[in-house]
Design brief:
binds flavin-adenine dinucleotide; 18 helices; 17 strands; about 20% strand; alpha/beta
Length: about 575
C-alpha cells in the first residue's frame, strides 16, 4: 500500500497507536503540524535515519502553507531594513530549491517601475532627497541582492528604460513613469511543495496522518513522553509516544506549547495577508511579475503570473480567528485601490476570480506596538523545560534551513554527529528532471494521443517524474483524461492520484490543495465539486449520503468565504 494513500491513513493511525504500547519502542521524532515547516522537519529527521511520525489537525498545508505569495526569494523588501542575513539565507535556500525541486520551483523575472515623486519604494524606511539618487540606490540594493545569491544567482538585474518597462506591462499607468529595473527570483506552488516534502518523507519511512489533532501531552517526571491525538474523521483518540516532540504548528505554536501546562516560551504575532486572483488578460501581463513599488503603509505589492492566473498581494494586518482567516471588503478595497493607482485598466470586484487569506507565523516583537510588516521573518528554535522543541517564524523559502536547525537540536541531544542530508536531497519527482520528465511526458503523449500540450505541461510542473503515475491512470481509463474545468488543465486522473498517493480525504482537499481549482476557477470549484466527489466516492467507498454531505460542506465553506468579501 502507498504510504500516503487515503487507505493507508487508517493503517498509519494504527501504527501511531502501537507506539503508545509500553512493550513497543516509541517513535524517535513526532512532528506536530503538516505545513511546510513540519513536512520539512519530518523529511530532515527521516533522512537522518530517525523513526518519524507527523500529525496534522486538518489537511496538509491548510494553514499559511497554502496562503503565501508563492515566492521563493530572499525578499528585496528586507534590504532597506538592512536585514542582510535573512536575505542571504533566503537566496541560498532559493538556490538549493532550484536544484532539489526543479519541477516545482522556477525562476521568475520581476519588473520594478520607478515613478517621479516616489518617496519610499520597496518599503524604504527613510526618504531619499527628492528624486535624486533613487535609481542609484535601487541599483545598489539590487547589486547586493545579486551578490548575496553568489554562484547560485538566477540572473543579474539590469536597468530598464521607460519604454522597456511598458513592454513588460503595457497596462501600467504611464504618467510620471521614469524608468525601472528587472531582477530575478523564483516562484513555486506552496501546497505542492509541501506535498512533495511529505511524499519524500514517507519514502524515508515517516508515518504521516492528516485530520489528526494533538489535544494534550503525556508527561513523566515533568518531561513529555507522548501526545494524545484525536482522529478528527472518526472522533477517536490515539496515544502516541516519542523520544522527541517537535511543535511546528505556525500561528498555533503558542497554543500547542500551552498544552504542556507550562507558560509558553513562544510568542507569536499573527499577521494577516490577503491576495486577489485575476485573469492574465485583465492585467495584460506577460511572463514577468511586477512590483507595485509603494503603498500608503510604506510597503510594496506584487502582481505575479501564477499558473493560469495572476495573483495580487499582499496585505499585512492583525489577527482574528486563526482557524478561519477571512478576506474582508476592506482588504479587497485596499488591494484594488493600490492596483488601480498603477494600472490603467481600472479593475473592479467584478474582475476578481477568487481571493485567499492566511496568517504569517511571526515571532513577537519585544517592542510594544511594532508594525507586523516590520517584524523579522527570521526563525527561532525553542526548547521548553518539558522537552518540547518549537520551531516558529521563518518563511516558505527557508523551510529547509528551519528544519535542519530543528533536527540539529535533536541530534545534539542524542549526541549524534551533525549531518545535513537535505542540502542535496532531490524531492520526490525531481530525480532525472528535466530529461526523464520530458521523456515520460512525450512518450505518454504520443501513446495516449488525447492530451493537449497545456495538460502535459501542467502535469510536468505539478508532479515532475511522478506524472507517470497520473498518465498510467489515464492509460488504464482514457475517460480520466477529461478536464475537470473547461479552461483549466486539471484532469480527472488527478483526483484519483490525490486519493492514492497524497491522502486526499475530502473534495475540499482536492479542490483547494491537491489542485488549485478553488483559486483558479471563476466558479471557485462549485461547478465541479459534484464530479470530484463522485470520483472520490469510488476510492473511499462513500455512501450517497456521505458524498452529499461533503459536497454541501464544500459549498457552504465557499459561500461563506464569498459572503465575507462583501462585508
Ligand atoms: C499572506 C502570506 C504570504 C506569504 N508569502 C510568502 C512568500 O511569498 N514566500 C515565502 O517564503 N514565505 C511566504 N509566507 C510565509 C510562509 O507561508 C510561512 O512562513 C509558512 O507557510 C509557514 O509554514 P508552517 O508550516 O510553519 O505553518 P502552517 O503552514 O500554518 O502549518 C502549521 C500547521 O499546524 C497545524 N496544527 C495546528 N495545531 C495543531 C495541532 N494541535 N495538532 C496537529 N496539527 C496542528 C495547522 O493545521 C497547520 O496546518 C507568506 C505567508 C503569508 C500568510
Amino acid at each position: 500500500m502507498q504510504p500516503l494513500s487515503s487507505h493507508a491513513r487508517r493503517q498509519n493511525l494504527a501504527h501511531l497507536h502501537k507506539s503508545g504500547d509500553p512493550s513497543r519502542s516509541p517513535f524517535d521524532v513526532l512532528v506536530i503540524g503538516g505545513g511546510v515547516t513540519g513536512a520539512g522537519v519530518a523529511l530532515d529527521a527521516a533522512a537522518r535515519g530517525y523513526k518519524v511520525a507527523l500529525v496534522e489537525k486538518t489537511d496538509f498545508a491548510s494553514g499559511a502553507s497554502s496562503k503565501s505569495t508563492k515566492l521563493i526569494h530572499g525578499g528585496i523588501r528586507y534590504l532597506p531594513n538592512f536585514d542582510f542575513a535573512l536575505v542571504h539565507q533566503g537566496l541560498v535556500e532559493r538556490g538549493l530549491l532550484l536544484q532539489n525541486a526543479p519541477f516545482l520551483v522556477e525562476p521568475l523575472a520581476f519588473v520594478l517601475p520607478i515613478y517621479a515623486g516616489d518617496r519610499h519604494p520597496v518599503g524604504m524606511p527613510f526618504t531619499p532627497p527628492r528624486g535624486i539618487g533613487l535609481g542609484q540606490l535601487l541599483d545598489l540594493g539590487l547589486s547586493f541582492y545579486d551578490g548575496f545569491a553568489g554562484r547560485r544567482n538566477v540572473k543579474r538585474h539590469r536597468h530598464l528604460s521607460r519604454e522597456q518597462v511598458l513592454k513588460f506591462a503595457p497596462a501600467l499607468v504611464t504618467e510620471r513613469l521614469k524608468e525601472g529595473f528587472i531582477y530575478y527570483d523564483a516562484q513555486t506552488n506552496d501546497v505542492r511543495l509541501t506535498l512533495a516534502l511529505l511524499r519524500t518523507a514517507a519514502q524515508f519511512g515517516a508515518t504521516i496522518v492528516n485530520y489528526a489533532e494533538v489535544t494534550s501531552f503525556m508527561k513523566k517526571d515533568g518531561t513529555i513522553t507522548g501526545v494524545c491525538v484525536c482522529d478528527r474523521l472518526r472522533n477517536q483518540e490515539v496515544m502516541v509516544c516519542a523520544r522527541h516532540i517537535v511543535n511546528a504548528t505556525g500561528v498555533f505554536s503558542q497554543q500547542v506549547e500551552a498544552l504542556t501546562g507550562a507558560t509558553p516560551l513562544v510568542q507569536v504575532e499573527p499577521s494577516k495577508g490577503v491576495h486577489l486572483v485575476f485573469s492574465r488578460e485583465d492585467l495584460q501581463l506577460a511572463d514577468a511579475a511586477l512590483v507595485l513599488p509603494e503603498t500608503d503603509d510604506r510597503r510594496l505589492l506584487f502582481v505575479i503570473p501564477w499558473q493560469s492566473r495572476v495573483i495580487l498581494g499582499t496585505t499585512d494586518t492583525g489577527a482574528d480567528d486563526l482557524d478561519h482567516p477571512t478576506v474582508t471588503h476592506a482588504d479587497v478595497a485596499y488591494l484594488l485601490n493600490h492596483l488601480n493607482r498603477y494600472f490603467s485598466t481600472h479593475l473592479t470586484t467584478e474582475h476578481i476570480i477568487s481571493t485567499y487569506a492566511g496568517y504569517r507565523p511571526l515571532v513577537k516583537s519585544r517592542t510594544a506596538g511594532a508594525a507586523t510588516a516590520k517584524l523579522s521573518r527570521n526563525h527561532t528554535v525553542l526548547q521548553s523545560p518539558s522537552g518540547l522543541v518549537t520551531i516558529v517564524g521563518g518563511k516558505l523559502t527557508t523551510y529547509r534551513r528551519m528544519a535542519q536547525d530543528t533536527v540539529d537540536v535533536l541530534s545534539r541531544r542524542d549526541g549524534y554527529r551533525l549531518v545535513h542530508p537535505t542540502e542535496n536531497l532531490p524531492l520526490q519527482g525531481s530525480v532525472g528532471c528535466p530529461k526523464l520528465q520530458q521523456e515520460i511526458l512525450s512518450t505518454s503523449r504520443s501513446a495516449l494521443g488525447t492530451l493537449d500540450e497545456e495538460i502535459v505541461a501542467h502535469l510536468g510542473r505539478s508532479y515532475g517524474t511522478e506524472a507517470h503515475k497520473v498518465l498510467q491512470l489515464i492509460a488504464e481509463d482514457t475517460s480520466l483524461a477529461k478536464r475537470l474545468v473547461d479552461d483549466l488543465p486539471y484532469v480527472r486522473a488527478e483526483v484519483l492520484y490525490a486519493c492514492r498517493y497524497e491522502m486526499a480525504m475530502t473534495p475540499y482537499d482536492v479542490l483547494a490543495r491537491r489542485t488549485s481549482i478553488t483559486l483558479e476557477d471563476r466558479q471557485r470549484g462549485l461547478g465541479v465539486v459534484d464530479t470530484i466527489a463522485q470520483l472520490m466516492a469510488r476510492e473511499h467507498s462513500w455512501t450517497t449520503e456521505q458524498r452529499a454531505e461533503l459536497v454541501v460542506a464544500y459549498r457552504a465553506a465557499i459561500e461563506q468565504q464569498m459572503a465575507a468579501e462583501t462585508t
